Amino acid sequence: MSVYINDSSGKDDISVSGTKEEPFKSGAFALFVNQTGSEPKLLVYKKDEDTDGGYVEISASALKKARKGAEGLKKKAAKQEDQDKKKKEQDAKDVAKRLELMNITIKEDLSLPKARSMKIGRCYSAVDERVKVCGWIHRLRLSKSVGFVVLRDGTGYLQAVLSGDLAKAYQTGTLTLESTVKLYGTVRKLPDGKTAPGGVELDVDYYEIVGLAPAGDDAFTNRVQEGADPSLLLDQRHLMLRGETLSAVMKVRAALLKAFRRVFDEEGLTEVTPPCMVQTQVEGGSTLFKLDYYGEEAFLTQSSQLYLETCLSSLGDVYCIQESFRAEKSHTRRHLSEYTHIEGELAFLDFEDLLTHIERLITSTVQYVLEDSVAGPLIKQLNPDFKAPQMPFMRLEYKDAITWLNEHGIKNEENEEFKFGDDIAEAAERKMTDTIGVPILLTKFPVAIKSFYMKRCADDPRVTESVDVLMPTVGEITGGSMRIESTEELMAGFTREGIDASAYYWFVDQRRYGTCPHGGYGIGTERILAWLCDRFTVRDCSLYPRFSGRCKP
Ligand code: 4AD
User: Fold this and answer.
1) Best probe residue, ligand 1, of 334, 341, 349 (max atoms within 8 Å of C-beta)
2) Domains of the chain with bracketed CATH
């Protein structure tokens, strides 16, 4: 039998017949596909020969080479066949294994004691009890024989172990971070030397998947990546809140507000909830958010102070914990456009009483937060060097602060020496506070740099009975003052600030219908938290921070 070879038009393919019309490309391949029977005669195309259509019998040396090549192809084919066979066997094994794992049914053993449903925080003291806990998978480590899960439910973290069939089961392999599960098992005390939250571990005997979170590109860890641009992380704030640091700050925040309410109660103040949509300003027109209120001009409140003042005559001393709004264009680390404002107002007291009340409020509240079983340890974790403030706080009059700043070479906003009447802006104020290193009651600011309602000091009418509480690392956390008692003086304040007094008739009436000495203050929740939790910015202390350029999610 003759087989034709043409190294320019031929093809080395098993579908090729090897005829003159359909030649092979190489002699090696021609011999390789014609292994059965006697060796065929190979005819090779030679362009310049005058032979049968250009084909001549292969030379002895080329035939030897073709035979060697065919041998190589044979070996290669055998190897490939072997590999294919092994892969097929492995695939079959994998399918069988998967079927076997899929067949592992995770079933609750009903002969076990009934599991008591509880939140993670309670599990720590339920040693040797069979419990059911529901939550989100915070951490996950799976191997063939054992699975470690750290479950989170907002009350704490619980280390759980899946072993035996539970670890092997196909469904366990599908678990991802942030999936929700219900775990059933026995709480075991951890042996000495091992650590896990609460000193316990859950020995899981059964579990159910409630909702699987995405894997792959959309996996949780791809949505919130540590060190990513802060703006991108803020877009993912709803997921960031699941992280340990942010959720810890939010827990301290809850404890802080609870502690404030407790101290307000001890101090005899009643909680009220004034409106946030208003038609008056408190802290200057430049930071007002305007809104169209059914065709009338209205604002989002800057402070509930004026409303609190109206409650004194009916409810006595009052407080509120309410959102305040400031259209602050500045992107500083301590300004938000919306913040939670803790405000108190007290009647029949003098400036000294007010200062002492503020000191007591802050020290007692901080003490309660530190004693709180949840928040106390979290503050230790977030701010290990935090020292609770002690009464009395250092008192520093504005005029003495000006001297102090000049003595320490700190300049004003114009990069000049401070002079009486200058505003002590954020940077200078923080430098001073950080250098002094203890809480300061900075008092008696000049009339011109404070609001229209502040009472003047009897012994120096250039200054007001006003106070800012300054804390190291943050600066001002509280602003307060005694309020003007007389109608005439208040009217003069409106005129000085260019405010139309007619919209404030209800506020003025407090002076007309039985005036009294009174004073109050406002505390920025996010600022006091930044100090307590050692956060760089108030943005880290707000659930969904608002500042210029950000009003989502
Ligand atoms: O000093 P402020 O402006 O005082 C008042 O609003 C008074 N009317 C309060 C009162 O006497 N009832 O604000 C009080 C506190 C500040 O010390 C600061 O902690 C916080 O509110 N604060 C802000 N926090 C975050 N972002 C802002 N833009 C803030 N502006 C004020």
Assistant:
1) 341
2) 2-87+95-100 (3.30.1910.20), 116-211 (2.40.50.140), 245-540 (3.30.930.10)
Ligand 1 atom closest to 328 (CA): 28
Separation of 522 CA from ligand 1 center, angstroms? 6
Express each pLDDT in 75-114 by its tens digit: 999 999 999 999 999 998 888 877 777 777 789 999 999 9
Q: Locate 183 and state its tokens.
A: 């775990």
Q: Interhelix angle for 505-512 vs 487-497, to 10°?
A: 150
Contact present, 23 and 6 (Cβ < 8 Å): yes
**Positive or negative: CA dihedral 388, 393, 394, 398:** positive
pLDDT confidence of residue 297: 96
Residues flanking ligand 1, CB < 6 Å:
282-283, 302-303, 305, 326, 328, 335-336, 339, 341, 343, 476-480, 520-524, 526-527, 538
- In this prediction, residue 464 carries a pLDDT of 98
Question: Which of 470, 477, 483, 475 has its CA nearest to residue 520?
Answer: 483
Residue 81: per-residue pLDDT: 93
The ligand 1 atom nearest the CA atom of 520 = 11
Q: How many helices (H) and strands (E) does the chain have?
A: 17, 22
The string of pLDDT tens digits covering residues 355-395 is 999 999 999 999 999 999 999 999 999 999 999 999 999 99
Nearest to 286 by CA among 499, 474, 506: 499
Minimal-distance CA residue to ligand 1 atom 23: 524
CA dist 261 and 179 (Å) reads 36
Interhelix angle 375-382/244-266, rounded to 10 degrees, is 130
| CA–centroid distance, residue 476 to ligand 1 (Å) | 9
Amino acid letter, residue 336: L
d(CA 421, CA 338): 29
The four Cα atoms 162, 205, 134, 138 give a dihedral, to 10 degrees, of -10
Kindly report the protein residue whose alpha carbon is nearest to atom 1 of ligand 1.
479
Show Cβ contacts of residue 325 under 8 Å, excluding neighbours closer than 6 positions: 276, 289, 299, 300, 301, 302, 337, 338
Give the pLDDT of residue 50: 58
Question: What separation in angstroms does the CA of 526 have from each of 118, 295, 475, 534, 545?
Answer: 32, 34, 12, 11, 10
pTM: 0.84
Average pLDDT score over the chain: 94
Segment 423-439 mean pLDDT: 94
Grouping H, G, I as helix, E, B as strand and the rest as coil, residue 343 is strand
Q: From the CA of 85, how far away is ligand 1's center (Å)?
A: 77
Residues 355 and 519: beta-carbon distance below 8 Å: no
In the structure, what pLDDT confidence band is assigned to residue 344 with cuts at 50, 70 and 90? very high
Nearest CA to ligand 1 atom 28: 335
